[in-house]
Amino acid sequence: MGLSHEGRHDGRFAKRVVRDTYDPLIQALVAVANRLPKRIDPKTGDPVMRPLSDKNILLGVCGGIAAFKAVEVLRLLVEQGARVRVIASANALNFVGETTFEALSKRPVCSQLFGPNTNAEAIGHIEWAQTADAVLIAPATANVIGKMAAGIADDALTTILLAVTAPVLLCPAMNSRMYQHPAVARNLQTLRHDGIVILPPDAGELACGTVGPGRLPDPRRIVEKLAICVADKDLSGKTVLVTAGPTREMIDPVRYISNPSTGKMGFAVARAAAQRGANVILVAGPGHLADPVDVEVIRVQSAQQMAEAVLARFDHCDIVIKAAAVSDYRPIESEPHKRKKSDASLTLPLVRTMDILKTLGERKTRQILVGFAAETRSLQANATTKLKEKRLDLIVANNVATESAGFGSDNNTVTLFYKAG
Q: Which of 398, 392, 407 is nearest to 380 (CA)?
């Protein structure tokens, strides 16, 4: 999600946040805008946040049927602005040709250290290892996992891996029985002990017809996990709770009161906090967004359920960011069966739901509390009033009536108001 601040993209905003709040933890909210490399969207002029921008990434591809997914992983890495060099095993090239990898990476593929086709890129494998910001092995076969665990270096990929000091993310993909074999489990445990980060495979139907664990995770989740591996961990040891999405207040089993919130903002903030090393809890209302990597996600439906989930965890949090669009009212009674329509008008008695943000403001001791204000008019007046009444440290206000911003948009224009003025 892109995030802009009234057109201010010159770096002054980050300094102002630290000075006004006296606590850099508040930057968890604006990590995507202030602490990560920026690229400008040519259509909107807004900064597009790409955690992997300008990073040197080695993409190792092993010889399995999942090698075709490495093409999409490579595309996403390049889209993020990473400089990617592909190291493919000989067997990998039986599934995807060098030309495909070279066309996307704009760099030669390294597949062997010696032989008639050896090129300068292969000879410079030590330089590759020394300049890498991270290494991603996707897919990682049982064969290469075994070699890595034993310290064997008999091809370009395994040789380079022994010289790497940067973070390594390993994504196993293989037949279920192979993945569950004691030798593979033992090798993976050895690699974990050696500091290798392992993204477990998904479960499902495999190419061989087996159903079980062994599928390479979705390429977007792989890239998201890699971003976590390379990001600065300046929120390590801190617990950040984020709420996201709408709530639903049931009228009857098929009708409810809600709003157009999709949860994109809250999910983006939770993802940014996780990348920076925080222990992140995401309390999310109904929606279709995938769970962010390395985030504890609690799914709820109603405002009451969200209140219970947040209040139960509030005392153990350092930062709470209330990005959810919680329903202000609910029906006094929810019918157990569907209301049948008639020609008569309908009056639906409503009652206020708990004001979660105000309750947190009353209870907070050491926590930093961040609220959101979705407005259609008098943005500054309404936001600053809410900031004071609910004892917030920071409030994020946006005009949801603005075209190409607000609910459901991948971009947003917000104004931030601080307790310190």
A: 398
DSSP 160-213: HHHH--S-EEEEE---HHHHTSHHHHHHHHHHHHTT-EE-PPEEEE-TTS-EEE
**What are the tokens at 365?**
């001791």
* Residue located via tokens 């000091």: 165
The widest CA-to-CA distance across the chain, in whole angstroms, is 85
Residues 358, 326 contacting (CB under 8 angstroms): no
Q: Which of 252, 404, 267, 386 is nearest to 330 (CA)?
A: 252
Residue 92, SS3 per DSSP:
helix
Give whole-number Cα distances, 212 to 188, 204, 205, 215, in Å: 18, 5, 6, 8
- Name the helix (H) or strand (E) containing 413: strand 411-413
| Pairwise CA distance, residues 100 & 105, whole Å | 9
Amino acid, single-letter form, for residue 408: G
Structure-block tokens of residue 96: 């995807």
234: buried, middle or exposed (CB in 10 Å: 19+, 13-18, 0-12)? middle
- Would you state the pLDDT for residue 87? 93
Q: Do 221 and 290 touch, CB atoms closer than 8 A?
A: yes
Per-residue tokens: 275 = 């990348």
Distances (CA, A) of 251 to 134, 185, 257, 305: 51, 50, 7, 16
Residue ranges in the chain modelled with pLDDT below 70: 1-49, 114-125, 404-405, 421
State the burial class of residue 8 (Cβ atoms within 10 Å of its Cβ: 0-12, 13-18, 19+). Answer: exposed
318-372 pLDDT, tens digit each = 999 999 999 999 999 988 898 888 888 888 999 999 999 999 999 999 898 999 9
Q: Which residues form the catalytic set?
A: 208
What pLDDT does residue 49 have? Answer: 57
Per-residue pLDDT of 230-277, as tens digits, reads 988 888 889 999 999 999 999 999 999 999 899 998 998 899 889 888
Report the alpha-carbon distance of residue 314 to residue 59 in Å, rounded: 40
